[in-house]
Structure prediction request, 604 residues.
Amino acid sequence: MSLISVGTMAFDALETPFGKVDRIIGGSATYVAWAASNFFTPIRQVSIIGGDFPQEEIKSLEARGVDFDGVELVKDGKSFFWSGRYHLDMNTRDTLVTDLNVLAQFDPKLPDSYQDCEYLMLGNLAPAVQLSVINQLKNRPKLIVMDTMNFWMASAMDDLRKVLKMVDVLMVNDSEARELSGEHSLVKAALKIQEMGPKYIIIKKGEHGALLFQGRRVFFAPALPLEDVFDPTGAGDTFAGGFIGHIASTGNISFENMKKAIIVGSALASFCVEKFGPKRLQSLTKEEIEERIEVFTELVKF
Amino acid sequence: MSLISVGTMAFDALETPFGKVDRIIGGSATYVAWAASNFFTPIRQVSIIGGDFPQEEIKSLEARGVDFDGVELVKDGKSFFWSGRYHLDMNTRDTLVTDLNVLAQFDPKLPDSYQDCEYLMLGNLAPAVQLSVINQLKNRPKLIVMDTMNFWMASAMDDLRKVLKMVDVLMVNDSEARELSGEHSLVKAALKIQEMGPKYIIIKKGEHGALLFQGRRVFFAPALPLEDVFDPTGAGDTFAGGFIGHIASTGNISFENMKKAIIVGSALASFCVEKFGPKRLQSLTKEEIEERIEVFTELVKF
Prediction:
């Protein structure tokens, strides 16, 4: 029994109204691993890194129960690099640099030891890569969750449609849900996307919380009103990691348990934005997580 | 013991992506009265209307327990008229026409029978008018709630500051809270606005719900995800009416009870947007309201 997490492990350079960092650890699978490993191990990581990816980071993650057998190391290559600048509202950002580097040649080969996969988290990546991982699994996982973004809707819609048909849960933000469905109403958007494959649609709305749809059932998860959002990078991946980590640790894929998983993901994401990169996640304790989940519980109670 | 509601009673012409109406009943105090009278009467209305305001509407409201002694009728005048066109997202709109008409001469004189006021709802109006009503009351009400808008922040900030010092609860939308405080973070905005007077700040976020702040305490109320928003006109006033109606009917002004009042207001607002103008509110039953409140309860339960 295991959880596979597929995604990027990378470097980011970030500029927010609060400061600037030149080259810190990033990547969707990095955030998923830091978040999910609070709840469940082993996490069987699938990614690609260059020789520049720090050994120290690998060791820290291994110590938390992250398995690197499925992470391809290209010794003379460079890790994926992204650089962006956030606007004052922190909801919009400009991409300054995207250097694919080793990501351009990413064609994951799942190790045999990864075949016992029960939970599959497909982080934001080229749909063709997401598809390849699903197809390499001899037994269908109990739950496949995928994240994606508008970039793939514009550049790889045919592949994206194929992946959508094979997954259980789609996570997108509100503008992506609107783009994918052609519907402004999120209720209508969720119904339309369900026709494309996934039974569950999670729409992330940043500071406005998140919505979970299944058929006509809906759950509204709050976001914690924060005094400052220091750096939103990785908040969505952290949310995904908290979600899948909770699901895997409980072994329960019901709608009811997904609600709790979304609260867990939201709590983790609320920590993530407190510092640059995954730094805050790295120092997180079980007690802090439990306290934060309690805050979320109180937030909506009436 | 009574509830005073101060605001406009008017005509609106509306264009939404779903249709167009030429001249229907509108005005902040109209929506407040329709909403609040589900929970509490008498509602002592303070407004000004022209000879063109339909007798039928007055009779319908009187039948619900709305007192018109404080509504000035200018027989040879015309009622306030507003015309607007909503964009596809329904969150933004263009004002096409604003004819103040009798509103330009609005200088309310409170009837003696209004002096027993326990709950005062100051609908969106010139701050000088709001101030005049407060000053005419011999005894301070138990709770004063005010609504306002960005227009007054730009044109009558000095008066607005005076009213803010005298009220308990301020209701504004998110962009207005940001404008009034100069803070982007709503947490910081609410703290800053509390320094201006009101102990409680309610920030309305439309389809994203509402936030209630008192000191560092916060409550996050969901909005019902809707398939279609037919016409958002009056949703904020309906929310205010449901809020003050619940508070007045329970006689409880605690933070805990304000949470419930916000849910009641949100439930009423979710009906309001289903049809043009106050039409849907006029046909609403107690059972429908209770069912809708139950939907809100389920929406956030995990």
User: Anything to note?
Assistant: The longest strand of chain B covers residues 66-74. The first helix of chain B runs from residue 28 to 36.
